[in-house]
Structure prediction request, 345 residues.
Amino acid sequence: MKLTIKDIAKMAGVSPGTVSKVINHTGNISQKTIKRVRKVIEETGYQPTFSAKSLATKKSNLIGLIYAGNINAELNHPFFNDVVNVFKNAIGNLGYDILVFSNNKFSKDKQDYLARCRHFQLDGCLIIAGDQIEEATTELDQSNVPCVGVDIILNGPNSSYVTTDNNKVSEAVVTHLYLNRIKEVAFIGGPEDSVISNLRKESFIKNINLFGMLTKDDWLQHGDYFEESGYQAMNRILEKSPLPQAVFAISDMMALGALRALKEKGISVPEEIKIIGCDDIEACRYSNPSLATVKQDKEKIGQLAAHMLHDLINGDVQPTSVLVDPELVIRESCFIDMGGTLTNR
Prediction:
């Protein structure tokens, strides 16, 4: 029969809490008691369980991974998948395991994220942004549970967030087009109530106006970040003349959908219309033509999220926010022949 911490405590004549403190080297315990407990452990070959190790430290070494709201990212979005994979490796190296939550109801009692965190005694949570964030996410953010958000602004007493600088995303695209004498530009954003999409849209319009460039209401379209919505948005843009010289889609998947729509209409990319996406997913390198994009530093975002959460859990830092600079990557879909050569990346 497998021994429990209660069995060891009974054999040593102490409480289970004392055994846990001996295992975890915590608390003020006499050397005589420590020796007695260790002798029982050695003689029985007892291997402490996860719960026994966490009993005294009050830490589970478990992190909750939450795909919040009406999430388009959950399990099938390349950008968020890459960020989460980096986070998993980094947080694992810091000694944590991950428990994945969905936004489905936890139980018949309809408990929320905070109740789940308490149920599983989580040390902290990573929150991946979605649209139409539910009240349960806000409640968790405003609790004392350490939280780090990716692409979601958190302002709770023990919360931080890390995201790409979304103003600079659109600024980089518009500036590049302006410097290459492309002045008529369409925009394909995410859902109209998406915070991230609206930040990029506002920056896009601001910079278009700054440089005296042109966009039109018919050229400002919205999708859901996925390919089919980009295809449909591009077709709506193509319904009316004149057509733009370039299209900026705020996700690579929507940009790939737009590229498909242009091909079906026999419109040449980049000769007639240029396309730039955002995220720099792997598929960008292999589309035809290869897709220009704004690279979000997935490695840096994932690493920062892990270390920021670890520091919050251990009380090493005050809650903060970090904006990561994007990088414009020009490929064939936005090649501008100025007498030079194009280098694929």
